[in-house]
Every structure is written in C-alpha cells, then in structure tokens.
User: Which sequence fits this backbone?
C-alpha cells in the first residue's frame, strides 16, 4: 500500500515474466502434481496469465467537476486478500489473481487446493524471490504449504483480512459467503451450447471441439452440453466427427455416466474426482471402447435430464441433446445452466436468436460463433482472468475488482473552468 504505482507495476511485470519465460517447466510441474488435463495446454494457460491479466494500467480515477467544486473517486487497496484457488488451474489462477491484486496495491495469502498446493507454493516462491530482489518486499504472496478446510476457515475468520477472493465450486463459495465478509466468488458453471438451424455447422463443430476438449474440459467456461435443432441433427453430428469428435451410443453414454458421475439424492449430479480432467481415450477405455488416435472429444446423444447434462463434468465427453426447435433448445439450455449465470454459447447466423438466448441465459460470459475460450480473451477480444466472478457479479476479475472506492471532495473550489 505504501509503494508507488511504478513499483507495483515492476512487481506485476516480474510475475508476468516468470509465467511466460518458465511456462514449459511450471506447466509440466502442475500437470505432474495434479494429473488432470492435458500437459500441452498447461504452459499456454500460464503464458496467457502473464500476457493478458490486467495490471496497473487498468487502474483509474473518476472525476465529478461542477458548480460545487471537484470530487475525485479513487480505487484503493483492501490490504491482505485471502485467496482460494482451484485444482483445475492452480498456478494460472494464483498468477492472474496476484497480478491484478498487487496492481491494486494488495498483498495475498492463498489457501490453494491441496492437490495443486506444491505448484502454487513453488510459483509463489519464484514470484516472491524476484520481487524481493528488485523491490525489497518480502512475502508479498504467501501460500499455505499444507492447506486444509480448517486453514481456509482460519483465513476467512482472520480479523486482518477484509476481502476474500474465491475461485472454486459451490462448497467453498457457500463457506466464503457465510463468513460475513466481503467475498468475490468465482463459482461453478455448466455452460450450455445451442446450435440453431442457421449456424455454420462446420465452424460450430470445430469451435465446440476446440473449447470442450481444451485441457480436457477443465475450464469453468468450457462447453459442457450441446442442444441442437433436430432439422440439422445429422449434418451437425457428421461435422462433430469430422473435427475430432468420437460418437458414443446412448448405452455407452449411460455406462460412462454410471462410472464418472455421482448422482446424489439431493442437489445436482457431479463428476467423480478420479474422472475429472480425463481425456477422450482414457474415458472410452473405462467403458471398454477403443478410440482411434486423433480423437479429441467423446460425445453422444442423451436426453435433457441425463447426468452428463446436469453435471459440470470437467472431462472430455459432452452430451448432445436434440431439440424440436430453437426456443426449446434455449429452454433446455437455461435449465442445464442451473442459474449459475456463468457462461453460455450460441452458434447461429440470426441476430434475433442471439439476442433472445442472451436475454434468457443472463450469463456473465456469452459467446457467439466461437469457442468458449474466446469469452476469456483467448482468441476473442478482451482480457483474461481465471476468476470469473459469476456468483457475486463482478464478472471477469480485474484490478478494480480488488479495490475499495474512496471519495475525496473539494467544495466550491479547484474547478478551473
Ligand atoms: P473445489 O470447490 O473442490 O475446490 C476449490 C477450492 O476450495 C480448493 O482450494 C479447496 O481446497 C477449497 N474448498 C473446498 N471446499 C471448501 C470449504 N468448505 N471451505 C473452504 N475451502 C474449501 O473445486 P475444484 O475442483 O478445485 O475446481 C473446480 C470448480 O471450480 C468447478 O466447480 C469450477 O466451475 C470452479 N471454477 C470456477 C471458476 C470461475 O472463474 N468461476 C474458475 C475455475 C474453477
């Protein structure tokens, strides 16, 4: 809080450099520790954090100038922020959070997911060392080496921590919101895709495979279920196969769901841990199916109430549901999203369809005619963060997300007009 903006920028730039220059090594370490997703995508996620997370340049002030003088609103730090990171992208989330939080003048104490704690600690050590050597600030980013639910609770309850920044599933979001403190919650999603009869089917299939298979579907905004108008069904299925999709029969989808998805008596079905982040070949093998090399994604026809539709599966298999028409497809998409208001995707050439679905879904990210990745600045315009605060409404997190607004008023003076 006491250092200059220029020094904050230096700290952010050091984190960016490490993410970019050491992406291969750090990405491999993350994969080796977590054993989920695809090793080739881990470095890309770090480079993206380094290149596209917003920093000091995004900070600004608001000015109100009028007959009664001049009022300035500035964006001030909170202090030490308690950060919770998911196993799906441990270091990329910490790096994005750190760049934007430090840019805003904060320090960080992080309770990472236990299965991604080693890489979070290692990354933080590299960041801290570089920052200390250049600026003399020690431990700007603290990471708990053996994180537990209790250590997270202790952070939430600590009197010196006034802001929580949580990225994870429903359980941790509920815990943060119950803490009584201000919490920025990047909670779960279950992004549906609607493909209507006007869509460029070749582009739709290519984009869906790209987004849904990326890092084996670990990203919270990745395509998780597809609703297709029945008049284009055959053509769309053929296009999915042409772009690296492998079709399972409905029986095979059921068999895989029995293994990979837990259906509790209450609440939404959810993925079993041992299947999260698994690739198409491994999932197929689990039900005794062999897929040819080059297959990126499994898919298969299901009904709208299938566990693969209702669960946030986070693995390389997506259900495809036939809809009578566009309106029914959007209705089913709305139900499947569970009101998380996270992400929705449409493939269509009709502006009124895009508008209708956008209004109905009411999601934080809404991507048209591209892979879901474009919603987070990957192949689409805009910046990137791995924390999409859909639950509490801040959107894709920026340095301003981690600030308090302070107002400074000069009465009847300083306006020079
Ligand atoms: P998870 O909910 O199992 O764990 C997330 C973090 O919360 C971990 O650090 C975990 O240790 C901690 N945690 C879990 N329960 C807790 C509790 N009761 N009290 C305190 N801490 C607790 O999720 P995950 O498997 O690591 O990540 C996947 C989930 O995160 C998905 O639901 C995904 O959609 C979501 N996610 C959301 C975003 C977003 O930007 N909205 C980004 C990434 C992941």
Assistant:
């Amino acid at each position: 809080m006491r250092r200059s903006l220029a020094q904050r920028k230096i700290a952010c730039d050091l984190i960016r450099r490490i993410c970019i220059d050491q992406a291969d090594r750090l990405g491999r370490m993350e994969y080796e520790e977590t054993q989920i997703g695809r090793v080739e995508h881990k470095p890309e996620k770090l480079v993206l954090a380094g290149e596209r997370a917003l920093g000091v340049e995004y900070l600004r002030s608001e000015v109100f100038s009028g007959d009664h003088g001049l009022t300035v609103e500035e964006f001030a730090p909170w202090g030490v922020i308690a950060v919770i990171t998911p196993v799906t992208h441990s270091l990329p989330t910490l790096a994005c959070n750190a760049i934007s939080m430090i840019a805003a003048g904060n320090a960080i104490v992080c309770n990472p997911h236990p299965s991604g704690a080693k890489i979070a600690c290692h990354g933080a050590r590299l960041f801290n060392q570089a920052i200390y050597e250049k600026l003399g600030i020690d431990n700007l980013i603290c990471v708990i080496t053996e994180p537990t639910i209790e250590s997270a609770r202790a952070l939430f309850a600590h009197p010196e921590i006034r802001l929580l920044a949580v990225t994870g599933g429903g359980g941790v979001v509920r815990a943060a919101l119950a803490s009584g403190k201000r919490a920025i919650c990047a909670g779960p999603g279950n992004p549906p895709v609607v493909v209507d009869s006007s869509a460029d089917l070749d582009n739709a299939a290519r984009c869906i495979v790209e987004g849904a298979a990326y890092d084996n579907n670990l990203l919270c905004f990745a395509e998780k279920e597809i609703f297709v108008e029945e008049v284009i069904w055959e053509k769309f299925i053929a296009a999915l196969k042409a772009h690296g999709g492998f079709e399972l029969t409905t029986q095979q989808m059921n068999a895989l769901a029995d293994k990979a998805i837990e259906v509790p008596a209450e609440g939404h079905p959810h993925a079993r841990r041992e299947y999260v982040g698994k690739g198409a070949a491994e999932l197929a093998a689990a039900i005794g199916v062999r897929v040819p090399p080059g297959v990126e994604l499994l898919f298969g026809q299901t009904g709208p109430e299938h566990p693969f539709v209702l669960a946030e599966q986070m693995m390389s298999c997506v259900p495809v549901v036939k809809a009578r028409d566009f309106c029914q497809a959007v209705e089913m998409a709305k139900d499947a999203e569970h009101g998380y208001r996270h992400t929705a995707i449409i493939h269509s050439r009709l502006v009124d369809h895009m508008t209708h679905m956008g209004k109905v879904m009411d999601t934080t990210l809404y991507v048209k005619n591209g892979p879901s990745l474009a919603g987070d600045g990957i192949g689409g315009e805009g910046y990137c963060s791995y924390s999409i605060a859909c639950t509490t409404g801040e959107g894709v997190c920026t340095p301003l997300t981690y600030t308090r607004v302070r107002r400074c008023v000069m009465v009847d003076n300083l306006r020079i007009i």
User: Anything to note?
Assistant: DSSP finds 14 helices and 19 strands in the chain. Residues 298 and 317 are 4 Å apart (CA to CA). The mean pLDDT is 97. The longest helix spans residues 117-135.
